[in-house]
What we know:
With about 900 residues, this protein is of the alpha+beta class. Among the domains are: about 315-550, Neutral Protease Domain 2 (Neutral Protease, domain 2, Orthogonal Bundle); about 555-660, no CATH class. Helices cover about 40% and strands about 20% of the residues. The protein is built from 27 helices and 31 strands. The strands form eight sheets. Strands 6-5-9-3-2-12-15-14 form an eight-stranded mixed beta sheet, with no helix packed on it. It has a five-stranded mixed beta sheet with strand order 17-18-19-21-20, covered by helices on one side. (3S)-3,7-diaminoheptanoic acid binds near residues 264, 267, 268 and 301. (3S)-3,7-diaminoheptanoic acid binds near residues 301 and 324.
Amino acid sequence: MKKNKALRLEDYRPASYLVDSVDLRFELDPAATLVRATLAMRRNPEADAKEDQLILNGKHLDLRSIRLDERELDTDHFQVDDEHLVIEGVPQAFTLETEVIIHPEKNTALEGLYLSGGNFCTQCEPEGFRRITYFPDRPDVMATYRVTLVAQREQFPVLLSNGNLVAHGDLDAGRHFAEWEDPFRKPSYLFALVGGKLSCLEDSYTTASGRSITLQVYADARHLGQCAHAMKSLKQAMRWDEQRFGLECDLNQYMIVAADDFNMGAMENKGLNIFNSKYVLAASETATDADFQNITSVIGHEYFHNWTGNRVTCRDWFQLSLKEGLTVFRDQEFSADMTARPIQRISDARIIRGPQFAEDAGPMAHPVRPRSYVEINNFYTLTVYNKGAEVSRMIHTLLGEKAFRGGMDLYFQRHDGQAVTTEDFVRAMEDASGIDLSQFRLWYEQAGTPEVQVERHYDAEQKRYCLTFTQSCPPTPGQPRKEPFHIPIAVGLLDRKGRSMHLQLEGESRAKETRDRVLSLTRTRQTFEFVDVKQEPVPSLLRGFSAPVKMKCDYADEELAFLAGHDEDEFNRWDAGQQLAVRILLRLVDDLREGRPLHADNRLSDALRDTLENPHLDRAFKAQCLILPDENYLADQMDVADPSAIHHARQWLREHLAADLRKTFLNTWQDNLEADPKQVDAATVGRRSLKNACLSYLSLLDEEIFIELCANQAQLAHNMTDVLAALGILTHRDSPQREEQIAAFYRQWKSEPLVIDKWLSLQAQSSLPQTPEIVESLLQHEAFNIKNPNRVRALIGAFCQGNPYHFHAEDGRGYAFLADRILEIDSFNPQVAARLTTPLGRWRRYDPKRQQMMKAQLERIAAREDLSRDVGEIVEKSLASSESDS
Ligand code: B3K
Ligand code: ZN
């Protein structure tokens, strides 16, 4: 493996040359597309060196000609290597014209211009534009674009690019053209084009100021009927951004295109969002309730980028969280307003506390604003996105809604049309609120998950109650020691009846009126003293998950059960139940490992029964409470993870709960059977999630009737959530019903790739012993295509990340399987291959035998000669000793 050089934040220099306008002409042909680029360039007055050398990025381009101010350059005047075009002696201002040929048909990396289902589409963020033409491909070079697309009309009737359509018409030889103009200056990563046979669902939206905007969702004709939810979500997002942030859409036309082959979720190209079809297409027969919700949130996310990302963009890629963290925060807030806030919060926190904390504790740990990277594509991470969102959320918590909004307004006022840094964002927040965020900035700079230990003390005589917090943060690559963070901790105090007590801190003249308040923990160790506390309270800490930290409190089991039954903060109520379940499960894991007989106390059953029978609680919330912490999360709570014991303990506890709560589960299931299969409103979704959660417990009882019920539901339900819930139960049962239903499902849906992904995943996640063989054989199935990222994630991703029990099989076969696939995929799509590598990077978390086997596979990958920079970086960091620099 060749070692690739890291880029460092401190080496940032302004671009030497700027581009004012770009004129692009594409003669689209799958085998060989001609791209002519005309760039109006000038020296950057802010560049430091006064050299006259122009360096442009370019990759896999066949250069045909270069003209500088209309004069053809001969080969003496420029040099070309694999990644650059260098021209010496350029003037202060000039026009550069290049012609290159590119090969979309051969583009399997799905970056730059490629074909998906016979249609042309692009993906330029972060560095895909350089695969289209020579350009200073960096986000701080912003220009206006005019784009002419030429193609065969019959094969490619629809031709789209950013902005407004300014001309179109026929040309000779069956060709036609379309000319697009984007009036907004933008960085090259926001460029997009689409060409092909697509149908379009059209609607319009009138903005708060009364402008009418044409909205279009493009998909292949047979899927047009599945675009309505995406359109509805887009209009909701537009209204929401006006109401919450006063931000209006600035375009006349807003287009969304669904593509089947897409490396990630979606892309916010100005005026022309390109989406993975998974986040556009939905009908209740083919998509689950979770799919519907994901579509709303991703449509919202890309739309919100129009301001946080496009109008104000990133100076360099180290600032990625400036747009991504903030935009995830915005989409989470949007989803919370469209559905139910506590449920949204639970799902956000699950991601942080599960895979994001694991990332913080692993070899790729990096700050929200990384200081260095080898391949930027590897830094589109949960840390940059989701922890970044938590950082925005903490600012919101510390400032309050009004001042936060003031900060956003000031940020746009100052930086509209600019490429800026996270520092500019924080400064706007400070200036608008008058609140000092200097210590808070460490959240952008220090990697790792802070741990907060709590001690509590009640003085019955003085009626005083003290909470003492001690914070620490484990070392991460390149950061052995950490400064204390500024951590907002929302707390409430519960009296014996479970009511929130009033909160008055020492030195305050009266109690706060709210039932919770936010404490600012800024020192390593800090005590908060509450006065006039009439009885010893049970503290409810980190309400609403007010900071992405691990909060450790020595609660007794009874206290957790009490909080699970009483906390007014729904998030903490759910969390207390989860914490109790984790404790019980880890005790069971110990018992299993020590060969002791298993027994569980009934506190968890009692708490769940109370929750299920409580008429005041929302159904979706109850369903969340029924989901036990997953196997990956449990593994993260152990010093040495034991995937097999975890799996068996969790299964045992589920069976135990099923037996204990049989009657309650049965009643709840029956009470919620009526859920209109066509509806996806929050109430119906809640009903479905609750009845299916109950059914999954009931199916664990030794009663054939429930298996029959599942088989019937799989066969007869007209709603994908219900069908998949039933199949998700059956997939773990070695039974004729399983085989029948899995086969029937395939027959019914084989022409719907997004549904087939579900079929692949549910087999990959089965706990049955034959699963590894089934997964191997599915690689050869006609429905599988290793070139399609969705198929890869559905089968290989689901097995290696979603089935820890089998992936970590003691014979090491899971590891070899993954390494084989990574090597195979790396040869044509490095980005997708790199994403698959994560589970092997966690090798330090396992016993010596597994460690050795996992490491051996990483070494096998590392030994590959022509390994991509993407996989190379992750493998190298995974194998490096943890003290080495990031
Ligand atoms: N900004 C894109 C992500 C591009 C990822 C490239 N590897 C989607 C989003 O976050 O909205
Ligand atoms: Zn984004």
